[in-house]
Amino acid sequence: MVGDNGELSPRTYIPDLSPSAEVHKDHFIVCGLGSLGQQIILNLTKFSFDSFEVQIAGIDRAPVTEWEVENLPDMLSQAPIVGDCRRDHVLQEAGIEQCRAILIVTSDESTNVQTAIAVRRLNPQVHIIVRSSRHGLNQLLNRQLGRFVALDATELPAMTFALAGLEDNTLSVFNIDTFQFRVVERQITARDPQYCNMPVHRLHRQQVRLLNLKPFSNPHQPIGWATTASSMFHRWQPHVRVQAGDQVAYVEVKTLTHSQIEHMPTRSGPWSKLRQGIGDVIDGEWRRRLWGFWHSANQQSLRRVVAIALTTALVLWTTGTLLLYFNIPTISFTKAIVLGAILILGGYGDVFGGFEDSGAQGWVLLTCLLIATVSLLMVIGVLGLLADQLLSSRFEFLQRRPKVPKKNHVIVVGLGRVGKRVVRILQDLRQPLVAITHHLDSPALRNQIPLLEGPMLQQLQEAHLSTARSVIAVTDDPVLNLEVALLAAEALENEKRPFTPVIRTLSQLFSDNIKAFLPQARSFSVYALSAEAFAGAAFGENILGLFRLNQQTILITEYAIEYGDTLNGKPLAEIAYGYGVVPILLRQRQPSKQYQDYPMPSDDLRAHLGDKLYVLSSINGLRRIERGEMTPPRQWLLEVDSPLNPTMLSEAGSLLAKLSNVQLDKCRQLMKTLPNTLQLSLYDYQAHRLMQELKRCVPIRLSPLK
């Protein structure tokens, strides 16, 4: 019940949905039944419920010998098809003609692209989702094929790895146009006036939206669930207060300036470069740079040539020394060694110069001339190759390279696609880091980040492991990642501070096993994280990113409102509470074809045809939106008495229409016949806001109906 003080009763309920007699079937095809494909099938089946049946066909080039989920084959509508997914008859056997979407996620990107082209020829209307990291080609295919989405399974979860290594309050940071959103989870203290002892509805501010609340202990007042479809968002009733020790998660937004969008790095001046150079000489940093330059992958050919040249020079020196010693009796062995060295340095004239007879035979003179000529050509060749390498590397060993941090830094092991993306995210967050790689395919990185090259396990100590903040192991070898994490945990087991290594795996089963015996580590399967994004994209949504919150994967999703869309014409309150999602940005299309942006939009705004709506949602939220399965609101009885100031009736009628989804004429008619009552369909947060706003104009009572 709601009293005059405006507080809602904790006795709430979540209404059941009545199943429909009509069954709607959607057919999907998954090409590639590896770890990613299997996880996608698992997530697609979450969309199958009651009147919505999801049928899935799977294709793989070879029979699947290992299933990550035991009953996964039973989730398919037919036995897995063995064959080349590029072939027409294989696609037709899988039902491409009646297919809604096909997910092409084999490990060969060339096969994926060829399959996408073949699919578009067979079915011009099917929605195509492709696993591909070729961003330029993906844009071209999107323009040519239409209804085409390309996702990179390895880069999507990079934010999760980066922020897990930071071990701070940030769960995600992402940009949408000129807005930067930051998801934060932290524990509230008694000295935090912005949150401590605040009711939940006060945490939904102009730039902030509450996502989750986990009480430290049982609150003093009774608590019930609010009417919402989500198991995480909007669960708590508006009057519930946050106490010290509670953990809250929220998303905040700020508008980026032009300079922040460009993100132009500032160039250091000559004095800072001079100080850097002096510091390098003092601490011996120049030795590491020169050693790293010599042992880099680009210098392998140079090392081979120099080794051959030194061996040849030693042979020529020995030959010349022995030749002179045994054929010119007037010189000692020591002098023969010296003359042999002069000879291979091109000093033939210094050894046999002038017109004086040296006493050497003709064949000795010719042999020594040949030795001098070969050695001279060899020196010229080596110097030429060295000059070419120096010019091509732009004197890399002389360039200023970032130093390895001494403490409070993150160690990133592996610089593949995931590793590079993790490094970029950490740089954007201004987190000190050092990267370790065995083979570097982007030499420009040497001058952009602190970098150690060589055997990864040996380089860990060089990266100041004992004072590091965390280790993020994201190589392509999950066993090596585990070895890195174990080595780091063992090296720091005596340290009296929390240390959480982050491990990349390719199998969710492997991740679960790691968590069992190494509980302090955070292990993520890239395919298990990415699969939810692929499954959401199968229903035509644009997945911008993902992050983990409360043991769930939250998808950052863009909805382009189209004709017949389940979101078209609905107020954001119904979308948020009815579907269990969090709208974070509404871009309303104007007659000039420009967009009016509303970050953290108000509940009373509506999504219309042509608008773009960005939401945070779990995979279940996407499923509810896809099926139009909205949790119905609670029924309320509004009692309105006559006000002392009749001039407020017009404003009260407008407010009631704005906040209750009741027609304006009906609201004004109500205000003309006071006292009166009106039955309303409102979610708890809507009812609380209506109570707070409307009681400023007229005396009201709002009570839930059983």
UniProtKB/TrEMBL annotation:
GO function terms (MF aspect): monoatomic cation transmembrane transporter activity
Pfam family, one: TrkA_N
Domain RCK C-terminal: 544-631
GO biological process: potassium ion transport
Keywords assigned: Membrane, Transmembrane, Transmembrane helix
Top-rank lineage group of the source organism: Bacteria
Name of the protein in its database record: Potassium transporter TrkA
Species the sequence originates in: Adonisia turfae CCMR0082
Source lineage: Bacteria, Bacillati, Cyanobacteriota, Adonisia, Adonisia turfae
